[in-house]
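Quick one, C-alpha cells below. Sequence please?
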C-alpha cells in the first residue's frame, strides 16, 4: 500500500476524497427515499451523486494536459453542464402515473438535487454541498408532515346516506351538520341500487379533518330518516 501511495499525487488523493464525500452526502438523501421504499433509493442516490462528482472532476481536471495548446479552445464547464440536463432522463424514470395521481416527482427532484450536490463536491465546494444536503433533508423529512396535514385538510370526503325516499331534505341535512354545512361541495340524491325502496344521498365535503368527518357521520347516523351511513 505504501508503494502505491508514492505513485499517487496529493492532489489525486484529494479528488478521491471528493468521491467518498459525494457518496456519503448522496446516501444521506437517499436514505429518506429508501425509508419510503421508493425504487430510486439509497444506492441510486449515491451513484448519481458520485457520478456527478466524477463528471465535475473530469470537467475541471481531465483536460489539463491540452490546455494552452495552440488552436485548442476548451470550456471545462461543458461536461458538468450536461449533468443538469442528462439527469432529467433518470428522474423521468422514477415518475409514475397511477390513474389521475402522479407519483415520484419528489424522488425525481431529489435525484436532480443530489446531482447538484455531487457537482458541488467535485468542484471543491464542501461547505455548500453539506449545507445543501441538510436543507434537502429538512425539506424531504421535516416538511412532509406539514404537507400531509395541508393535503389532508383539503382532501375531498364523501358520505353516502341510505334514507327513506323524500324524508331527508337539504335543510334538515344542513341543520344536522351545523356550521360545517358550508363545506358541502356536492349533493346527489338517487334511488338506491342495493336496497329497493330506499334513497341514496351522496354528499361530498372538503377542507375538513378526519375528526370533523367522523362527527358528521355520527350526527347524520342519529337522524330518524337515515337508515345507514356509508363512507366509500
Amino acid at each position: 500500500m505504501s508503494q502505491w501511495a508514492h505513485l499517487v499525487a496529493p492532489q489525486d488523493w484529494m479528488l478521491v476524497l471528493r468521491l467518498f464525500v459525494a457518496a456519503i452526502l448522496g446516501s444521506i438523501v437517499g436514505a429518506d427515499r429508501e425509508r419510503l421504499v421508493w425504487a430510486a433509493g439509497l444506492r441510486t442516490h449515491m451513484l448519481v451523486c458520485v457520478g456527478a462528482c466524477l463528471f465535475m472532476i473530469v470537467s475541471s481536471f481531465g483536460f489539463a494536459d491540452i490546455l494552452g495548446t495552440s488552436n485548442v479552445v476548451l470550456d471545462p464547464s461543458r461536461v458538468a453542464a450536461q449533468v443538469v440536463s442528462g439527469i432529467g432522463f433518470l428522474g423521468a424514470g422514477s415518475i409514475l402515473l397511477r390513474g389521475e395521481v402522479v407519483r415520484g416527482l419528489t424522488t425525481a427532484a431529489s435525484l436532480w438535487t443530489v446531482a447538484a450536490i455531487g457537482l458541488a463536491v467535485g468542484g471543491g465546494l464542501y461547505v455548500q454541498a453539506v449545507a445543501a444536503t441538510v436543507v434537502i433533508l429538512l425539506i424531504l423529512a421535516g416538511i412532509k408532515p406539514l404537507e400531509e396535514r395541508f393535503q389532508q385538510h383539503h382532501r375531498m370526503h364523501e358520505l353516502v346516506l341510505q334514507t327513506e325516499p323524500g324524508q331527508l331534505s337539504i335543510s334538515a341535512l344542513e341543520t344536522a351538520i351545523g356550521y360545517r354545512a358550508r363545506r358541502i361541495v356536492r349533493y346527489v340524491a338517487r334511488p338506491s341500487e342495493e336496497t329497493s325502496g330506499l334513497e341514496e344521498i351522496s354528499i361530498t365535503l372538503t377542507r375538513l379533518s378526519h375528526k370533523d368527518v367522523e362527527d358528521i357521520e355520527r350526527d347524520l347516523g342519529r337522524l330518524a330518516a337515515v337508515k345507514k351511513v356509508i363512507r366509500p
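The beta strands are 96-98, 101-103, 157-163, 184-191, 199-205, 226-230. The CA atoms of residues 56 and 91 lie 19 Å apart.
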